[in-house]
Amino acid sequence: MTFRLVLAAHLACAFGAAALFWIPIVADKGGPLHIRAGRFYTRLIYLTALTGAPLAVLLFAQASEPAARRTACFLGYLMTILVMPVFHGVRVARAARTGAAVASPLHTGLSWLAILAGLALAALAIRWQEWPYLLLSPVGPVMGVRALLYARQKFSAWREEHVVAMLTSGIAVHTAMLVFGSTRTLGLTLTGMTVYVPWLLPTIVGLPLILWRVRRERAASASR
Questions:
Q1: Cα 103 from chain centroid?
Q2: How far is residue 180's CA from residue 176's CA, in Å, rounded to a whole number?
Q3: What pTM, to 2 d.p., does this model score?
Q4: What is the pLDDT of residues 8-20, one digit of tens each?
């Protein structure tokens, strides 16, 4: 019963975050709606990870076959690339507004966790021949290194950094929804190259969105 309640809470938070993600995207940047929706999205991401972590541990501990343990390991990595970009993105915006430092023990720890988790997943994905896992393994190292490098500078291009971090978390949560929603919730059996559709579709949509937003931020900065 407890497992089902935690799972229900986890799914509700994840689906809620995926839906709410689009409000800050279309709202006026820096406006009241953008800020309120962003804060709510952040809380839902944290709650998604908070409820997902014990599920991953329980799945790993009770797994009766290697595939389930591999899924549990991937879920642990997924929680990392959900939380770390959001934490970094919020901290970047807060630092630019208040003048506080971006770097902190927690910020550094999450950044290194994302880096090491991504490298570990890549090695395990090759060993397991789980190629979809390999597709997402660079996210952690890329975002972790980016966060550590950004923390050393003085808030230059902070809007761009905020946008990249938050959109990356959005891609991650939508990927999770499509992958686990299609196979576990809907019970779809994907074969051949269709297996990669839920893994790649959020990136195919999200990466051009990131590039477009970055270009807009750079153009706006150049005109100031």
A1: 20
A2: 6
A3: 0.89
A4: 898 899 999 999 9
